[in-house]
Write a structure and sequence with these properties.
It is built from six helices and 13 strands. The protein is of the alpha/beta class. The strands form three sheets. Strands 1, 4, 5, 6, 8, 9, 10, 11 and 12 form a nine-stranded mixed sheet that branches. A two-stranded antiparallel sheet has the order 2-3. The chain has a two-stranded antiparallel ribbon with strand order 7-13. It is globular.
Length: about 250
Amino acid sequence: MQAVIIAAGLGYRLRPYTEERPKCLLEVGGKTILQRTLDNFQRSGVDRVAIVRGHMADKISIPDVSYFENTDYKNNNILRSLFYAEPAMDDSFIFTYSDIVYDVSVLEKLLHSTEDISVVVDRDWRSAYVGRDKHPITEAELVKVEGGRIVKIGKDVVATDEASGEFIGLGKFSKTGAKALREEFHRLQTQYTGRPDQQFQHAKSFEKAYLTDMFQELIDRGHTVAPVEISKGWHDIDTEQDLERAARYLNH
């Protein structure tokens, strides 16, 4: 199984730490975030890993890993970053944000999904925001599920009172799903070429799109995006407060 780790971002909310290294190389509970991800891959039989680098790319140097360079990471966003690794997306693959830590059981549940497009959704998401004042609930990538499929996904897209859960930044595409993703991306790329200020879904532009914008586009075009539901077992790391909370979780 192929995995793609999206690790190009600046991580500006974790400065000054991210002035010295990429966010994925910050330590939490005695290991870097990246090493925790790689350990989970190894334990679950994910044997091919690609990393999309950007900010301080030279600091990320892991043996037996392939690399893709997002040379314009200051001006684009997660969707565009993922597609720098398009050569690694010609068959089934999993993708992961590089600033999350999760139990290996979360990854294994995802790997068992038989859907063409699957994303991990935390049903118990509200508890993670109790006392988390540096990363407000308004920044959650919330999901609405109806009839076993996701109908709405994204930040500021789903109201908290209608949310079924939170997308954690981890998902999987089958070969068929990967083909649909690539085709839709290139269709949109052609459509938005020369239109840098036109909104795409809830992003200011196609270049600034999140993965959730792409998932919503796939949904709107009739593709099924299936939730892989979990209850806790992961942490998002955007602030120093998040680092401390994740460390307490991992050391308990």
